[in-house]
UniProtKB/TrEMBL annotation:
Enzyme type, top EC level: ligase
Residue intervals passing through the bilayer: 193-211
GO cellular component term, pick one: cytosol
Reaction(s) this enzyme catalyzes, per UniProt: L-cysteine + L-glutamate + ATP = gamma-L-glutamyl-L-cysteine + ADP + phosphate + H(+)
Presence of keyword Nucleotide-binding: yes
Glutamate--cysteine ligase domain: residues covered: 11-381
Organism for this UniProt entry: Pseudomonas marincola
InterPro entries (alphabetical): Gln_synth/guanido_kin_cat_dom, Glu_cys_ligase, Glut_cys_ligase
Protein name per the record: Glutamate--cysteine ligase
Amino acid sequence: MSEQLTSRMALLGQPANLSLLTQCLHGIERECLRVDSDGQLALTPHPRALGSALTNAQITTDYSESLLEFITPALADPAQTLENLELTHRFVYSKLADEYLWSPSMPCALPDEEQIPIARYGDSNIGKLKYVYRNGLALRYGKTMQCIAGIHYNFSLPDALWKLLQAEEGDQQSALDYQSASYIAMIRNFRRYSWLLMYLFGASPALDVGFMRGRPHKLQMLDENTLYLPYATSLRMSDLGYQSSAQSELTPCYNDLASYIDSLRQAVGTPYPPYVEIGTRKDGEWLQLNSNILQIENEYYSSIRPKRVTDSGERPIQALNSRGVQYIEVRCLDINPMLPLGIDLTESRFLDAFLLFCALQDSPQLERGECHASTENFLKVVKEGRRPNLHLQRIDGPITLQAWASELLGKIQQSAELLDRSHGGTAHVTALQAQQAKVDDVSLTPSAQVLAQLQKGESFTQFALRQSKLHAEYFRSQPLSAEQLSEMEASATRSLEEQAAIEAQDEEDFDTFVAAYQASILASDN
């Protein structure tokens, strides 16, 4: 236990301060493909009964018309966050007719690339911009990769907690700068230790053979329709998933917020020759927003992001630059196909303890060697995390995954106990014990459980479709109350009206709108 961790926990454990930990906020974003009854990608438009993908705050689309995204509000009790997510799933199933929500992260058998429908957001300038951005993603990375789904876990500590720590430590920065620096330090620790989450929650050790589109790979055949790696935890987070030669040199520094913002701003403003060759338009039609390394900052694929809620028309980097970090977004979590929501309260409770540990633990700057080792550890665990006697590289030398994991869980237990003292009960320590059991017995990990099912003779697609139909039965067996249904239908209708109002208010032409949007990020440091 470091001196800083011990003193910070003692401070937060004082009776006058303990309630601060009940004010942490939790939000979940869950993506999932719509499929037909045969497990094929649904090529139908985004259901109008779900409202406008542009303006509905809780139900939108991600890359494709077929890729739904459910967004919860940020709530203090993760049980309520999951309850909100479940209500959204039930509402969607009340409108889906004969379609299903695909249960795992890796996609179903996909049609030819040109048949995968890019998400549409209407005729407003902002709606068109979202479409052109996605068209650019298709040109740059292909549509197949964009059909991978995941869970994003948004987490914040209350501002008052940061102010308490700052006062205790005698830090002379502004409150805003201290809070931002603390979140960035938390992200550095996340980078050091996120391999543990891949071992504990990775759930994509296999995929449909068609996903590779005939590209060379080093996967093994489980059956004629399924590829896998025997010790993989999360092929979604491996170099088979989100990969980009343009982004390979882009390594935003998490040693301070300014350098992180600057590296993304440079990427959005720096031309990339292969994209320049494609151009931004053809025959008068927009192909991509620009020919730079990134079209917009959200194109950068990362396992965690510092975030700030944006004002209308404001870009993420502008919000961070002007008002600092408000919360973090964990982006590396697989959807667990064994769970109806893809995540459960045990996972959420552990994530809270893990993230609190990352926030309170010492977090020295990531020097190049440690930064590289953190990336290598992560990539090794996603491909080989269940390999017996797997060694990772720690700053003091090699260590087995099991030994390091148990040591880390011992430290995280202090956070879990603190959260339990704050909330009452033993839920966080119990959640942590469930993770230690996975370290002790690899067969309890989600990735091992998925492979165990597949090794009974089902293909990846057969297993995933069976789970999808089981989950559909679960949600449809507990329909919404008349009041809940009416409220969510009204929300969907309002969102359609809001989209129509935005379209009616647009006055400038799209080219002018895009030019102003591009200029805004480059000017955001002035």
